[in-house]
Amino acid sequence: MNKITPQPGIMDIALYQGGQSHVAGVEHVIKLSSNENPFGPSPKAIEAVRDSAAALHRYPSTDHASLRAAIGERHWLDSARLICGVGSDEVLQFIAQAYAGPGDEVIYTEHGFSMYPIIARMAGATPVMAAERNRQVDVNNILAAVNDQTRIVFVTNPGNPTSTMIPEAELLRLAKALPKTCLMVIDGAYAEFVDGFDGGASLVDRFDNVIMTRTFSKVYGLGGMRVGWGYAAQSIIDVLNRVRQPFNLSLTALAAAEAAVNDIEFLSFCQAENARLRVWLSDELAKIGVPSDASCTNFILTRFADRTEAEACDDYLKTQGLIVRRVAGYNLPNALRITVGDEEACRRVVAAITVFKGGVA
Ligand code: PMP
């Protein structure tokens, strides 16, 4: 052989789809496709980033002690049992890399986050999809897919792109039924939008094989900084730290996240505005014949007659400078996922879809 070839399995890894922020020929776009915070980051996070600039010649903290302490205090968690990553994507990747490999299986659910099969393959493991039922995670289907090779089960709660919650009793049933040799990862990227939901922390405290992951990319408005974290048993955190690069988070990212987690006032403002505008957006779209399931996150999953109509609507929205998300790749071909933007963005979406549906905006 006289050709450079990648390792076996690398070319089976799908390229991540999403993150589009430009439309050819359209100057001003409103991006509603990545569930970002329309109100930006906390002003205190911006200030902290500016302040951190004077120390840019220094390496950042390797153990993230200060950020972990702030997260621990805010969420009432033992900071020694926290790990921080470059977005929760990286924490999810640590988990797959450390606990799954060739010959192992990793379960994710039908409409679950698209990175799960990608990181399973990056670790050399085989992703296995468990069907959902009416856009809800189905614990029976997950358990039916479990076998001796299963090492990890990923569930998103609340779901993306479904925005549905797994009932507490069902999550508990799953945690109890999984073999102790299999990890259960509760991905709570949108947990802050759900009043009273602990993201799965109480299950982590009860079961040594349960891990919770969270992010600063959504309600905290720090997607550009790339900070996420995980909470698990000490023994798991000790393992995950071995596959973590020593300086994985930048100085500015650490400063921004710490300031953001301490700015409770800004957090409450974003949560309240999102809840108000989400109801308005879904109600107005329902009135013009575009229903969506009840949402508990910062996006809604709108339903169209079929895939053709959903894609035609998406194409039309693009011409109006509105980028939303097709979710055919999540096995939801007749749906579009729309991030709840600020008031102007929500009004523009409703006006544009009204015109698309043949009405007068
Ligand atoms: N989990 C879910 C369910 C998500 O929707 C996302 C981002 N789209 C992530 C994890 C990863 O987020 P990040 O890496 O920005 O923390």
Automatic annotation (TrEMBL):
The keyword Transferase applies. InterPro entries: Aminotransferase_I/II_large, HisP_aminotrans, HistidinolP_aminotransfase, PyrdxlP-dep_Trfase, PyrdxlP-dep_Trfase_major, PyrdxlP-dep_Trfase_small. Residues 28-353 form the Aminotransferase class I/classII large domain. One of its GO terms (molecular function) is pyridoxal phosphate binding. GO terms for biological process: L-histidine biosynthetic process. It catalyses: L-histidinol phosphate + 2-oxoglutarate = 3-(imidazol-4-yl)-2-oxopropyl phosphate + L-glutamate. Pathway: Amino-acid biosynthesis; L-histidine biosynthesis; L-histidine from 5-phospho-alpha-D-ribose 1-diphosphate: step 7/9. The modification N6-(pyridoxal phosphate)lysine is found at K218. Its EC number is 2.6.1.9. Pfam families: Aminotran_1_2. Its cofactor is pyridoxal 5'-phosphate. Keywords: Amino-acid biosynthesis, Aminotransferase, Histidine biosynthesis, Pyridoxal phosphate, Transferase. Homodimer. Belongs to the class-II pyridoxal-phosphate-dependent aminotransferase family. Histidinol-phosphate aminotransferase subfamily. This is Histidinol-phosphate aminotransferase.
